[in-house]
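Sequence in, structure out.
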Amino acid sequence: MQTSPDRHEYPAHWEADVVLRDGGTARIRPITVDDAERLVSFYEQVSDESKYYRFFAPYPRLSAKDVHRFTHHDFVDRVGLAATVGGEFIATVRYDRIGTDGMPASAPADEAEVAFLVQDAHQGRGVASALLEHIGAVARERDIRRFAAEVLPANTKMIKVFMDAGYTQKRSFEDGVVRLEFDLEPTDRSLAVQRAREQRAEGRSVRRLLVPGSVAVVGTGRTPKGVGRSILDNIRDAGFTGSLYAVNKAFPEDLKELDGIPAYRSVRDIDGPVDLAVVAVPAEQVPEAVTECGEHGVQGLVVVSAGYAESGPEGRERQRELVRHARTYGMRIIGPNAFGVINTSPDVRLNASLAPVMPRPGRIGLFAQSGAIGIALLSRLQRRGGGVTGVTGVSTFVSSGNRADVSGNDVIQYWYDDPDTDVVLMYLESIGNPRKFTRLARRTAAAKPLVVVQGAGSAPQGHAVRATRLPHATVSALLRQAGVIRVDTITELVDAGLLLARQPLPTGPRVAILGNSESLGLLTYDACLSEGLRPLRPLDLTTAASAEDFHAALLRALGDDSCDAVVVTAIPAIGEATPGDAKLAEALRSAAEQVPGKPVLVVHVELGGLAEALSAAASTAPQPDTAVTGPRRLRPSQQLPPPVRAQEPTPEACSRLIPAYPAAERAVRALAEAVHYAQWRREIAEPGKVPDYEDIDEKGAAGLIDAMLARGQGLTLGTEETCELLGRYGIAVRRAVPAFTPDDAAQAADTLGYPVALKATAPHLRHRADLGGVRLDLADEEQLRRAYAELTELFGKPEELRPVVQAMAPRGVDTVVRAVIDPAAGAVLSFGLAGAASQLLGDMAHRLVPVTDREAGSLIRSVRTAPLLFGWRGSTPVDTPALEELLLRVSRLVDDHPEVVAVTLEPVVVAPHGLTVLGASVRLAPPPARDDLGPRTLPVY
């Protein structure tokens, strides 16, 4: 129904780029009156069978009336969306709002009929599923809560689209037609389905870039120097198994080959398909190259060209246009300003990068945004493989450059079920979408280790993403909660990766230490204590120890049930490395193979021969995970098909590689990270639950919030409103009575009952007992009036101090509970002890909401000052179960009501029996938009 002009306003925010099931991309946008010719052309390419399924009768062509109806929408009661590739329609969907009688209607009617039509050439690509997600989101925005669809029984593909979506639905059959009705409110199952599709689509989009059957290098120079020619040579020299083409529009017309590689002036001239194009031309020539690649059907681009967002505002706009241009043709981009990609699989052998040497094959996936860091990581693995830690290689490597399109999230989706990758190492200068990254990281870390160095940089230039307001340390804590192994340097990144790629996970923190140097053993012992491990007394074999002595000692240590890991320390004999190094290495490997299941590390001092000997093995595949037992269980919204596990090593490759480190601190730090990760794996096997407290009044709280927000867009609640809202969730706040005069204070104390506390609540004195703004245990009126006089004499007039009187709470430990909704990371619950010392040290622990009972327990134990809660130095332990319950209730409040954007409870005095909330503040505001609950989309440019 076309009424007021505002109902015709084009909803640009409905436009979105999506990744389809096969890894290609499409653009979804509203259909407008300008699309008449596109619609007719699209319909002409649809088969008669598909037309019959759509209209329930032969319908060879659209009439002028049909075209008008399908292109004129009010974007409220009638909406049409199209999926486009190359600017042309490949599928359409529309809904029409209907009333209870099935006739066209307007709001408040909340049901609509929905219908799809997908071009036959694009059926099976997941286009209809993506359109259903987007049209469902549009309908919810327009207050439509339910879809109805009528489908012919023979149209099994469309029935499957509806049935597999995961919505709550009803199905009926009448007059030869299947009628489906389903609610549009997201469910755990619909979110799980959506995220499973997201993983498959994004993973396959990266696979198209890393496992191409053919590659064209656009911008190949005729001379050996230059970026394009270097990449061409690197691809050829690595032994790429597919077809390789050199492309440069400056080639002479009669040039057919370049050093034996087929040469062409344009990608259009290549006879066969091209899966991947590496673009190495000046930035101003890239648009022409992208057009040629898109028209030829190239599936993906690696753009190494510079001159984009890193060069300023003009380059930033050029970068955005590059992404829009490529997505028009369904292509994804790594780059621009990228170092390149590598795949060492013998079936691919792709070195489409500026690295002159192909890395050793292995089972470590490597991601770096920065080309310089990528070079450092590759060279460090290569160098250490030759002389320090043995042969450990790379499965795939991605340097994303400006990260305009393909990001670390996409590559994680690929590595999640990549059978050739056992460990993931990532250097991230920033995390553009922390909410999604933590979700993907949690799922991936449950299957294989994920080690991350997180820089403190901002989002990449040109990205339209919401920046997190959380401190760097808080984001790091949330990553650890998601199972990410967080390290600080690329040295630690490689150290941890080598251990995790070679050894089983430890089952606990107990460490046996043995070796031929007492001092090196003691250094290792001290390092273990510093990292929170539990070392056993070092065993000194003396400098006269033989390889046989090492073998026997390691066998005993590995067979000892009192240890979970073994660190072997070794110093060289006088002079250079001797032939005994190989014998010692073989002795250690032999012992480790005889008693498998525990990690073994070597700390050596410039023992090159031993390190090389330890490297002599054929596989870096980790042993079966002995630290985790039982099935892996995830929340419903996180459930996905299980990942493809690493291939079993061949009998010839069964000897375990033992990582060696040049310093005890480095070896122990890597081992400590493995211990913490193994503990996390054990804990997620039983993830806990979110309790359902019977006294929570969720509906009543929602009514209060709506009434309060009606007064304004964002407000901090007053004391009475705060207490009332928190009370709906069973959180009692001890009453504080304002006392503007000594008489007011005395009257309040009479009402509350002695003993009382007198507090100054001015912002500069609030929660600062150390400044003297609090007087406790005032037993009578005389003491109260004296304290009042002291406060006003010290700090000023009552109107400046804002004094309050409060009944004394039982003695205990003062703590702080906070919750905040971050626009990028989501709702975060924080806990710490109150006081200047904790604030100065930043001793706060954090968890993502909703928090489970297990997470609440770990939260209060995560702060460094936690021993004060559990009877430190003979003090009485406090009621931590009551504290855990309080944390769970606050978590429920902010999870149930995203309008509650900030909660602070300070101080919370936790006594041996029970706790008391002495101060509270709540802020309400319209919640930030959650893109993780909406339809799948790529970042907007």
